[in-house]
Fold this sequence. Notes:
The protein is mainly α. Helices cover 44% and strands 7% of the residues.
Amino acid sequence: RGRPPGHWKIDVEALRNLSPRVVFAQSACDVCDASTDDVVFALREAGLLDDDDAEETGRGGEEGRPRRRPPPCRVVPVAPTTLEGMLVSVADVAAALGATDAGERLIAGLRGRLERVRAEVSE
Length: 123
C-alpha cells in the first residue's frame, strides 16, 4: 500500500525519534493539516503503530538484553466543526492523556464563558 494522497509530508524519521504514545489527528480538512490517514500511514512507516506491542527486535542492548520497540502509539481523531464538537474534542483529548478531571473542569469553565457571552449578546 502506497502513501495516501495529501498535501502534507510528515517527517517519519522525526516521528520515530519522538516516539509519541498519543497523536492527535484531524480529519476535517486535508488542506489545513495532515489528514488522519496521513498520520496513520506515517506512524506505521515509523514502526509506531501496529498490533504487536513491544515485540523483540533483536539483541544488542546493554548486557545482551533484547531491544524492544516502543509501545504502539494511539491515534485520537479530533475534528470539531461546531462549538459543541469542540467541547467534545476537549473531553476526548483529556481522556486520551489520562486527565479526564482536568478536561471536565476546562469544559465547565468554557461552558460558563459561552453562557456569559450568550447572556451579554441577548441583552
